[in-house]
Amino acid sequence: MMDETEILPVVQFIKALAPFDRLSEADLLQTCQSLTVGYYSKSLGELLLDHDNLQLYIVRTGAFEVKGSQGELIDRLGEGDYFGFPSLLSGDEISNQVIILEDSLVYHLSASTFDSLRQRYKEFDQFFNRAYAKRMRQLSSFGAVANEALASTSHIHHLMSPQPVSININEPIQRAAQIMQQHNVSSILVIDNQKLSGIITDKDLRNRVLAQGIDVELPVHKVMTGQPMTISADTLVFDAMLAMSEKDIHHLAVVNDGIPIGVLTSSDILRAQSSEPQLLINQLNRQTTVAGLIQVSHQIPQLFQHLVHADHRAHDVGRILTSVTDVLTRRLIEINQQLLGAAPIAFCWLAFGSQARQDQMGCSDQDNGLLLACEPNEAEAAYFANLTKAVCKGLNECGYVFCPGNIMAQNPKWRLSLEKWQQCFHSWVKAPEPLALMHASIFFDMRCIYGPQTLFSQLQQHVLTATKNNDIFLAAMTNNALTESTPLGFFRKFVVERDGSEVKGIDLKHKGSALVNDIARIYALSVGLEEVNTAKRIQALIETKILNPKDGSNLADAHEFIAHLRLSNQGYQAQHGVSMSNFLIPQHLSSLIRHQLRAAFHVVHDAQSGLKLQFTRSF
Amino acid sequence: MSRVKQLWRKHRLTKQLQRLSQPVLQNYQKLSCDLMQPNHCAIPFVALDLEMTGLNPKTDQIISIGIVPINLDKLQLAQAQHKKLQIKGSVGDSAIIHGIVDHQLEQGVDTRTALLWLLTQLAGKVIVAHHGHLDIQFLKTQLNYHFGESVIFCYIDTLTIERERWLRQHDMIYEGCLRLGASRHRYHLPVYGAHSALIDALACGELFLAQRSAMGNGVNIQQWIELK
Asked: Cβ distance B27 to B123 under 8 Å?
């Protein structure tokens, strides 16, 4: 009766909104045609939600404010935002109040259409089910790429899929297709008496079965490629690539004495090619001069760019970048020791903050210190002064700028014996004053980069014993962590803070990642957990039942999401020649990302409330 | 509106009903009498827009009709409809304005059928149109031409409402200030790039909702209903 062009203004608007952008053309049109249109003048003051006629409100133009039962600001909504869905999802009584801030044109989607779209589109359901029950991970496209391949790329056994999917030679063709579907693979090995007999690929099923109209009940050996090309597990990646391109094939069976042990596909190799960090690390390890290290480190920004563009998980990017920093630091220590002579007493090079947590990003400065096995005499002290000065200078020249807060091993204040470090931590824990708490957030995330692990463990165990179950210290840490909170969300070109004020952008580090780091750190210290990486801390807290699995994994996902956004933001900045920062301008975000980020903020905010309840015994 | 005026209107419509012979026209007129109840609280409306080959009802023809019903202050997109009409001759230069070219009208319905369809759709509802006088004149001319008689239409002109609201705040009317787009702008309604009878009916319907919302609940909408 109607074609799309006829209510074009409505269709065009709805089509651009997440999650409606996921609907098929036909469903989109049908959804648009089912809408009713209403207008709410500012002079009415309030929009009364009708419990008997629940619907989704889609703001076409104008602005609303949602307030909770206590009158607290819950949300501010503008063009393209939604309200009314919590009651639609839960069926609960409406307790929120909707204030009309500006004259508004609103589309209404009926409960029945809403429910039917939820049933038919998983993404649609997940989008609105941000009752945090559903995991945010499913919403997002992090492009989770297994970075295990980064460990080594020289032999293919790191890249191949072990436990290959296989089928017996006498089974019907259809069964082969079903198994491939089940395992979501593009090829299947055909086995005869445990030995490899052939291979069938997606392409074979198309060309030799479907196109020829072959009966799918016939045994697989009728259509397989017999005597397929095989390689052994210790083949070099380079040779495997060569073989594939020469024969124009995309699947290689990996065999050991004729028995299949894996499959290597061209996409496995493609994926592994993003593993240039290994090359960079090898290059760093080969350098024998500081000048050489500086030269090689020029590639680090480029590596960062590649990792961001490959859309790796932020967790992995942080780990990779940090491992480069670690190697660089180690090489600087070793080379300078060759210049200055061997160290007179045992020592550990400590990393604090982001390097310790293994979540370094595009613009990291140094945070480090030195741990000495015993109190040095004058000559020994001079040696370490020279060594640390040279290493910090080297790091600075390699792009890891001097710490503005002077938390560096070259500062005598942070170059201490085990005993002095212990006293230092002890004084912070005992008297948690503002400066001590500021230090705590940096120093309590520490990792040993160089030196004997046993020495480091002595310090770490001492610290954890002091903090574990230390209610006063933990309460002080918690109060300190709660001085910052995530924004409420977005409104037009602005970020809305929880007090209703509007700012132009958001510092994703200090109003996002850092808050999650704080939360994970406090829980970790409270139970004496050695782990310092935030994601691993959260994982360990879930396993030890300190955090419940739902809240824990939501927090981990929110952390990953915010970190991922920080990375892509930095990637964007680098690409556009803007100096790198953690400052995000909301206009650069798509409708979907805005909604997801808002949900991530909610998760972090809830986790902060949980923290408050746990450690300060107040609401 | 005074009760006397209300009764007079009803009387006019009843008289007209008695003169009509076509059943579809009779039906429209009969249901329009019922709309004139003094305390009718939930009057159904229907936003209407016509595209014509020109502005003269005597010589120009209707080429498309768009309608969007309004129930309980909500535009019902599910019941929105659009009809293209066959015309005599060519749309000529008017295609520049409405974008409809001759071959698109070949599948259109003939005017007589379209008029009967439209009267059924409009029956029991008050028409809402921007600069509605012109649309009504076209409809009346065509009804007279095809059936030898015409109904009295019940309609609200959003332009009339807008003129009155404008003059309450301003001393004079500027060129173009009461046009559909300019009026919508004052209510912060979105700008629609595309135009068709249906989109303009939707645009007019939204303007009507905005006007009502701005006037508040105290205003009796019956005072704006015109008969022609």
From this structure: yes
Question: Is pLDDT at A139 greater than 60 in this prediction?
Answer: no
Residues of A in contact with B80 (CB under 8 A): 2, 6-7, 33
Assess contact for A39 and B209: CB atoms under 8 A. Answer: yes
Query: What's the CATH fold of domain A4-129?
Result: Jelly Rolls (2.60.120)
Which candidate in A13, A28, A33, A41 is best for mutational testing of the B interface (most B CBs within 10 A)? A41
The residue among B46, B51, B65, B77 with the most chain A CBs within 10 A of its CB, best to mutate, is B77
Closest residue by Cα to residue A387 from A450, A465, A454: A450
Give the chain A residue nearest B187 (alpha carbons).
Answer: A103
* Phi, psi angles (nearest 5°) of residue A520: -65, -40
How close A26 gets to chain B, by Cα (Å)? 14
Please tell me the predicted confidence (pLDDT) of residue B200.
94
Please, are residues A384 and A368 in contact by the beta-carbon 8 Å criterion?
Answer: no
Neighbours of A568 (CB within 10 A): 17
Cβ atoms within 10 Å of A80's Cβ, excluding its own: 18
DSSP designation for A150: G
Q: Which CATH class is domain A476-616?
A: mainly alpha
Measured distance CA(A253)–CA(A189) in Å, rounded: 8
Low-confidence ranges of chain B (pLDDT < 70): 1, 38-41, 91, 93, 95-105
- How far apart CA A2 and CA B82 sit, in angstroms, is 7
The predicted-structure confidence for A495-506, as pLDDT tens digits, reads as follows 888 877 878 888
Distance CA A451, CA A415 (A): 14
Domain A147-272 indexed as CATH 1.10.287.110: no
The CATH H-level superfamily of B3-227 is Ribonuclease H-like superfamily/Ribonuclease H (3.30.420.10)
- Encoded tokens for A575: 């690409």
Query: Could you state, in order of their start, the residue ranges of all structural domains in chain B?
Result: 3-227
CA-based radius of gyration for chain B: 17
* A105 to B196: CB separation less than 8 angstroms, yes or no: no
Give Cα A389 to chain centroid, integer Å.
34
Taking the domains of chain A in order of start, what are their residue ranges? 4-129, 147-272, 276-443, 476-616
